[in-house]
Design a protein that fits this description.
The chain is an alpha+beta fold. It has 10 helices and 12 strands. The strands form 4 sheets. A 6-stranded antiparallel β-sheet has the order 1-2-9-4-7-11. A two-stranded antiparallel sheet has the order 3-8. The longest helix has 18 residues. 35% of the residues are buried. The model has no long low-confidence stretch (mean pLDDT 86).
């Protein structure tokens, strides 16, 4: 396995993180992000899945994955070079509301548009670009994506009065990542078997409850670390056994350790 990545945090003036990666024989484990992941392929081919369905994206194509969508990622036979933006959902929504009153459903997860891909590559360049200029480039590229490759969002059907135990379980885990929900008790309360609940949750959200919670814990730990909490304290706060456990799962999901990410925040960019 050979991995070379440059990671930096865009900071308060920009809408999220930017990742530049050169990968060879590398696979990301199934995971999700709490942001919109929009990637531009500069070289090679990315082989990935979204909710278990396989996809492939090559040079000149975009990858678009929504918040909470479980996916994998990695290389095909050759080296893969790509640039990825993890865009804050609120900032994304501000842009879609300009074009679509009720929100938008972007195309994807693969968008074939070489000219637009070039605009994203330019917006996510590793060159030293002033924050205001980079923000304008990302904003223009996002408007371009939504205008050319999105459709108006359909109205959401009204919720049923019947209790939704899967949604309740997800809400509980999201509200308290350190919790260990009693799946047996929740299933019995709805007159279900524990195995049935686990399978229904996995069909709905792409991962079984414990795997979903592990991913959510990493996302929350990442935010705590950026807020200045020490690694051991962040691990304990979200329910990991220790900082080594957090570090191991963090690397499976993000491809780098928490230390590398924090150094990138401080230094502006960092090469693995």
């Amino acid at each position: 396995m050979a991995v070379s990545q440059h990671i930096w945090h865009c900071g308060a003036d920009l809408p999220g993180d930017v990742l530049i990666s050169d990968l060879q024989a590398f696979r990301y484990a199934p995971h999700f992000h709490d942001a919109w992941a929009i990637g531009a392929i500069a070289q090679g081919r990315c082989e990935f899945t979204v909710r278990g369905v396989p996809y492939s994206a090559g040079e000149g194509e975009l990858v678009v994955i929504g918040p909470g969508q479980v996916h994998t990622g990695g290389t095909a036979a050759q080296v893969l070079a790509y640039r990825m933006a993890y865009i804050d959902p609120a900032w994304f929504q501000d842009h879609e509301r300009v074009l679509y009153a009720n929100g938008a459903c972007p195309a994807g997860p693969v968008v074939t548009d070489p000219e637009l891909c070039g605009r994203w590559l330019d917006a996510l360049t590793p060159d030293d670009v002033p924050s205001e200029q980079r923000r304008e480039r990302i904003s223009a590229a996002l408007f371009g994506l939504l205008a050319a490759h999105a459709a108006p969002r359909e109205p959401v059907p009204s919720a049923s009065d019947e209790p939704d135990v899967c949604a309740l379980l997800r809400e509980r885990m999201a509200a308290d990542p350190a919790c260990a929900p009693d799946l047996e008790a929740m299933a019995q309360a709805q007159d279900r078997h524990r195995t049935t609940l686990v399978k229904q949750f996995a069909r709905r959200y792409g991962l079984p409850p414990q795997a979903w919670l592990r991913n959510w814990r990493v996302a929350r730990a990442r935010a705590l670390l950026r807020g200045g909490l020490p690694l051991a304290d962040a691990a304990q706060a979200v329910g990991f056994a220790d900082q080594a456990h957090l570090t191991r799962v963090f690397k499976q999901i993000y491809g780098s350790t928490p230390g590398v990410l924090l150094k990138a925040d401080a230094a502006g960019s960092q090469t693995l």
